[in-house]
């Protein structure tokens, strides 16, 4: 008896004792793992989790319903080990770059995970989501800017999602072919359910409010100027030439006088010029932050569903209205979804699903470092300039003709950017599928499925007269059509032979995709403010070139099950791709996976050990190329009837890339599966990559396509779910995950002769260089010259000495990532919150460079009180004999900060992106049954939720989860004109009748 009491005491202290009594059901975001749980795998095949030889993590509908996001996929951040969701910080739509287990391709756009909705692949990604054709860094170029116009994920209504299963490795997604080589997200949308055959009506309403999460450390102690002195030898300021001296008001730098109660001739908005008398020299501390408003998002969704033994249906309507934090920006979205499933008889079942989405915006913000972006204005805004001075937008009597931008013609008025430089979009998406299931008998069945996705998108771009890059205005219309058709058939067989169960599937599929863009540009407007193509001074029309692709496939899967204890899967797939030459068009790839339920095999279950599974898998996946890389195709020129030759020499002998994946791991359940632990090791090798290599210009081409190079990813993933306390009225559940990925470049083309291969460059100063032994994401650029003990070396001019060659500065990707979730429930009250973060990773900041160069950040106050506005850089100079001595050469502050933080000095403008975020939190109250049943209500829940509520980081700019939208490519590790990220507080009402 004494020993039993000791055991009970130990279990109580361990937090694993529960009192199982009747209690009111509550929603749980963190699900207790069940070993018999059914998950959706490749081709929509449903399998028991215990039978899988690879990791397939499922995120339930509550994650997306309970914390509303403009792009629902962001709700998964930090919830799944190995999953990284990267946005560009470019506006309210939050287009996401989704990767699993690191980078596998030398081209960033080829690392996306596949998105599958109800078994039909979504034609998402860079091929479809084309940008404006402009880079992130383009100041003074006369061009336009990148705009986050959303991607296919934006069209999916989060309230319609039943679950998302994450297939991480090539083994898990082998049956989906080349597009799933980087893993897949399997989205299952809701179908009809009901209790006792009665119709159920659900209503979900939410209102949320956004404010800026984090600001740079602006300085408001010194104003505009360049250390100019008046005749008395004192620092001064003058807007235009005045009695005090020559004009100092044309600079963008903030190295002017300290704010100390003095008076100067300044800009006067009443006369739109120099003030008649001297005005108080003072800072306007809200002159950047005051431009940003509290954003809002309102969402209302209603659904009807019903089901019986033969028929089920569901339909839903949702409307979302967003006004973003930047004035006059935002979007609205309407969603309709319907599903119907009917058993005609015991053998035949027909299921259909249809979804329609319309996303519309009169204005989405532009991003990047260019005259027309609000990011550019924030960088150039000076501490002594009142934001209200810009508010009239137009000069007196010059409406639509000449804007107010009193300090530089290169800096556009922020309200002109918000209210006149409009980037409109009207995007309509229709997707649908029909599936027929037929059972021939108890052993044979067939599934026939066909799906269609049609996107029609209209874009408009308006630029008024007097804008920095378009003095006579600009207008653009783009019309995009993308159509994808997927059809597949699958024959299934299952039988038992004693202790063995065998199931096999054989099938084939056909996928066809067509993309068309029509582009019309009015370069200059005859009449200001008339945004029509007929008003063009010069009309440029680009007739679309063909961009289509077809892949035919055949595949097979066979599964062996011995006593529900040992499972073996073998798959094979053959693709025929139109993007490869005839002799290489057909390529085959296999996979094999296995799992052992050790707790059943050796009968070692106990009160402590509930479940123990070992698993392993090996797979190869072939990856075809992009369309039109085999032959020479001319591009249409801006001049009507003209063409331009291609700059990349085609390769008629391209082969498919080969992705080889191996993984092993175990799943462990303890204390009645109250504690579940998962551990995975993996290695992924991608060889024969399709890459561009330089050619001699004498050939008439800049590059050519070849097969070469190999990338290896190795990693570890761990996840934990635990229910420490579970009593009649109180429950505490927690989850955690941790992942590490190490990427190594194993080989490069012989053409480089051991020299680095520059895969991409941003802003002309940050290079993504590949070297054997290095990693994808390695950032290269100029650094400071240093002594062997790390001291900065200065030249004779008192400025940092400059190196001759670029060097590795860091890597864009984190060393490891982690997430932690908690959920508490007490009677009808629930509280949940989650943290996630990363360690390591670096990012270059163009904003930091420019604001440091101009003296607008707090760290540039160092040396401001020195005599004559000079500073001596901390470091050494090299003597003639090679020795070093302390640097003693004073230089003026503008020269020092301008040189030390110059744009090309990647080292001084690159920072650690480690962070911890309170990603989301929610407190909810469900009214008791006794209160709501007289109202004929089944459930009624009120909740308050928050997103990105708190952050810790040493990254000095807006957000350490930084990336750049460069045309349509989301490029991690570089910040070029990032927009602020938001902190969100919201309220929610859920009702079920």
TrEMBL record:
<protein>
    <submittedName>
        <fullName>SusC/RagA family TonB-linked outer membrane protein</fullName>
    </submittedName>
</protein>
<comment type="similarity">
    <text>Belongs to the TonB-dependent receptor family.</text>
</comment>
<dbReference type="InterPro" id="IPR023996">
    <property type="entry name" value="TonB-dep_OMP_SusC/RagA"/>
</dbReference>
<dbReference type="Pfam" id="PF00593">
    <property type="entry name" value="TonB_dep_Rec_b-barrel"/>
</dbReference>
<dbReference type="InterPro" id="IPR036942">
    <property type="entry name" value="Beta-barrel_TonB_sf"/>
</dbReference>
<keyword id="KW-0813">Transport</keyword>
<dbReference type="InterPro" id="IPR037066">
    <property type="entry name" value="Plug_dom_sf"/>
</dbReference>
<keyword id="KW-0472">Membrane</keyword>
<keyword id="KW-0675">Receptor</keyword>
<keyword id="KW-0998">Cell outer membrane</keyword>
<dbReference type="InterPro" id="IPR012910">
    <property type="entry name" value="Plug_dom"/>
</dbReference>
<feature type="domain" description="TonB-dependent receptor-like beta-barrel">
    <location>
        <begin position="436"/>
        <end position="832"/>
    </location>
</feature>
<keyword id="KW-1134">Transmembrane beta strand</keyword>
<dbReference type="Pfam" id="PF07715">
    <property type="entry name" value="Plug"/>
</dbReference>
<dbReference type="InterPro" id="IPR039426">
    <property type="entry name" value="TonB-dep_rcpt-like"/>
</dbReference>
<keyword id="KW-0812">Transmembrane</keyword>
<keyword id="KW-0732">Signal</keyword>
<keyword id="KW-0798">TonB box</keyword>
<feature type="domain" description="TonB-dependent receptor plug">
    <location>
        <begin position="56"/>
        <end position="184"/>
    </location>
</feature>
<dbReference type="InterPro" id="IPR000531">
    <property type="entry name" value="Beta-barrel_TonB"/>
</dbReference>
<feature type="signal peptide">
    <location>
        <begin position="1"/>
        <end position="22"/>
    </location>
</feature>
<dbReference type="InterPro" id="IPR023997">
    <property type="entry name" value="TonB-dep_OMP_SusC/RagA_CS"/>
</dbReference>
């Amino acid at each position: 008896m004494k020993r039993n009491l000791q055991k009970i005491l130990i279990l109580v202290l361990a937090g694993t004792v529960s009192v199982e009594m009747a209690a009111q059901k509550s929603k749980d975001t963190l699900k207790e793992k069940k070993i018999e749980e059914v998950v959706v795998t490749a081709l929509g095949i449903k399998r028991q989790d215990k039978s899988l030889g690879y990791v397939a993590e499922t995120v339930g509908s509550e994650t997306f319903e309970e914390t509303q996001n403009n792009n629902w996929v962001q709700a998964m951040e930090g919830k799944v080990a190995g999953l990284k969701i990267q946005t560009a910080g470019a506006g309210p739509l939050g287009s996401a770059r989704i990767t699993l287990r690191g980078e596998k391709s030398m081209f960033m756009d080829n690392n996306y995970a596949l998105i599958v909705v109800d078994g039909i692949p979504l034609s998402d990604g860079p091929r479809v989501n084309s940008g404006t054709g402009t880079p992130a860094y383009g100041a003074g170029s006369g061009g336009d800017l990148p705009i986050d116009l959303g991607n296919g994920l934006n069209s999916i209504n989060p309230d319609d999602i039943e679950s998302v299963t994450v297939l991480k490795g090539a083994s898990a997604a082998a049956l989906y072919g080349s597009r799933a080589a980087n893993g897949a997200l399997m989205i299952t949308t809701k179908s009809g359910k009901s209790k006792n055959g009665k119709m159920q009506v659900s209503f979900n309403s939410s209102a949320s409010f956004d404010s800026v999460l984090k600001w740079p450390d602006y300085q408001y102690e010194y104003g505009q100027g360049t250390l100019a002195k008046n005749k008395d030898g004192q620092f001064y300021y003058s807007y235009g030439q005045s009695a005090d001296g020559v004009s100092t008001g044309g600079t963008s730098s903030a190295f002017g006088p300290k704010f100390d109660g003095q008076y100067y001739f300044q800009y006067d908005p009443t006369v739109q010029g120099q003030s008649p008398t001297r005005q108080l020299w003072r800072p306007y501390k809200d002159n950047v932050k005051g431009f940003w408003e509290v954003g809002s998002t309102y969402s209302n969704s209603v659904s009807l569903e019903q089901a019986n033994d033969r028929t089920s249906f569901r339909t839903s309507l949702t409307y979302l209205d967003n006004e973003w934090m930047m004035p006059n920006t935002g979007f609205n979205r309407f969603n309709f979804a319907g599903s119907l499933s009917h058993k005609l008889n015991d053998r035949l079942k027909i299921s259909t699903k249809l979804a329609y989405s319309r996303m519309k915006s009169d204005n989405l913000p532009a991003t990047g470092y260019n005259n027309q972006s609000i990011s550019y204005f924030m960088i150039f805004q000076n501490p002594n300039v009142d934001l209200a001075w810009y508010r009239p937008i137009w000069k007196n009597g010059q409406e639509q003709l000449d804007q107010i931008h009193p300090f530089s013609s290169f800096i556009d008025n922020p309200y002109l950017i918000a209210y006149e430089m409009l980037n409109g979009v009207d995007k309509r998406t229709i997707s649908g599928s029909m599936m027929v299931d037929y059972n021939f008998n108890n052993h044979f069945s067939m599934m026939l499925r066909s799906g269609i996705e049609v996107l029609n998108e209209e874009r408009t771009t308006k630029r008024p007269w007097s804008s920095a890059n378009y003095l006579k205005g600009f207008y653009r219309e783009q019309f995009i059509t993308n159509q994808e058709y997927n059809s597949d058939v699958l024959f299934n067989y299952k039988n038992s032979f004693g202790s063995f169960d065998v199931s096999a599937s054989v099938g084939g599929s056909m996928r066809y995709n067509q993309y068309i863009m029509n582009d019309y540009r009015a370069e200059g407007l005859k009449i200001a403010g008339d945004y029509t193509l007929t008003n063009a001074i010069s009309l440029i029309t680009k007739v679309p070139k063909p961009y289509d692709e077809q892949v035919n496939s055949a595949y097979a899967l066979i599964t062996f099950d011995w006593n529900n204890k040992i499972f073996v899967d073998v798959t094979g797939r053959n693709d025929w791709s139109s993007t490869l030459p005839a002799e290489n068009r057909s390529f085959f790839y296999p996979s094999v996976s296995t799992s052992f339920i050790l707790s059943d095999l050796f009968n070692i279950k106990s009160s402590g050990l509930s479940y123990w599974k070992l698993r392993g898998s090996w797979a190869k996946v072939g990856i075809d190329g992009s369309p039109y890389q085999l032959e020479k195709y001319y591009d249409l020129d801006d001049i009507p009837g003209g063409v331009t030759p291609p700059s990349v020499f085609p390769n008629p002998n391209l082969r498919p890339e080969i992705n080889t994946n191996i993984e092993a791991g175990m799943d462990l359940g303890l204390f009645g599966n109250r504690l579940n632990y998962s551990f995975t090791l993996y290695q992924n090798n991608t060889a024969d990559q399709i890459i561009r290599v330089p050619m001699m210009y004498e050939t008439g081409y800049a590059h050519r396509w070849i097969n070469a190079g190999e990338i290896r990813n190795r990693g570890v993933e761990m996840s934990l779910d635990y229910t420490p306390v579970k009593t009649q009225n109180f429950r505490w559940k927690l989850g955690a995950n941790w992942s590490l990925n190490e990427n190594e470049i194993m080989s490069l083309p012989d053409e480089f002769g051991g020299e680095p291969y520059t895969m991409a460059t941003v802003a002309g100063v940050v290079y993504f260089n590949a070297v054997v032994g290095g990693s994808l994401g390695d950032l290269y650029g100029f650094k400071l010259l240093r002594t062997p003990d790390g001291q900065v070396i200065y030249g004779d001019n008192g400025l940092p000495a400059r190196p001759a060659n670029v060097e590795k500065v860091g890597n864009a990707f984190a060393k490891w990532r982690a997430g932690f979730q908690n959920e508490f429930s007490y009677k009808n009250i629930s509280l949940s919150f989650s943290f996630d973060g990363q360690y390591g990773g670096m990012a270059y900041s163009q904003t930091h460079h420019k604001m440091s160069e101009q003296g607008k950040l707090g760290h540039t106050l160092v040396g401001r009180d020195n005599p004559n506005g000079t500073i001596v850089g901390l470091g050494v100079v090299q003597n003639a004999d090679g020795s070093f001595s302390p640097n003693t050469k004073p230089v003026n502050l503008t020269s020092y900060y301008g040189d030390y933080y110059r744009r090309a000095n990647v080292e001084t403008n690159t920072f650690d992106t480690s962070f911890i975020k309170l990603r989301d939190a929610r407190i909810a109250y469900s009214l008791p049954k006794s209160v709501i049943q007289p109202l004929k209500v089944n459930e009624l829940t009120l909740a308050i939720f928050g997103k990105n509520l708190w952050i810790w980081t040493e990254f000095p700019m807006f957000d350490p989860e930084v990336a750049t939208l460069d045309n349509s490519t989301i490029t991690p590790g570089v910040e070029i004109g990032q927009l602020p990220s938001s902190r969100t507080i919201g309220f929610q009402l859920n009702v079920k009748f």
